Amino acid sequence: MADLFRALVEATPDAVVVADREGRILLWNTGAERIFGHRAEDALGSSLDLIIPERQRARHWEGYASVMAKGETRYGDRLLAVPAMREDGARISVEFSVGLIRGEGGEVASIVAIMRDVSERWERERARDRSRQVLG
Length: 136
Known about the structure:
Elements (H helix, E strand, L loop, with lengths): L1 H10 L3 E6 L4 E4 L1 H7 L3 H4 L10 H17 L9 E6 L5 E12 L5 E10 L1 H17 L1
Antiparallel strand pairs: 1-2, 1-5, 3-4, 4-5
């Protein structure tokens, strides 16, 4: 069964990233390599700062610490949208959902994020909104 789950994670085009309680990357699939540009061997063991733009880091880590302390996320099953950063420094827009992975005692052991690059759609919507303002 573990082989099936591993194959599933690798087959998805979305980024699947698992990080431990301190925000160190434990799993980085081929979707994450494609979206963010970092090879798995370079990302594994690194901080999530690898993909978080500097301006968003303080807010991210504040929320991350709160989730780890409380053992719950206020986002539940909502889809979130945030800026992210590629290896080359380019900013992208991603939508993602998160899930908490618990240890045997019920404590949060790690967190999984499944992310999709929505930069093209975001840019189209932004251009449409700008043209409406000009025409409006």
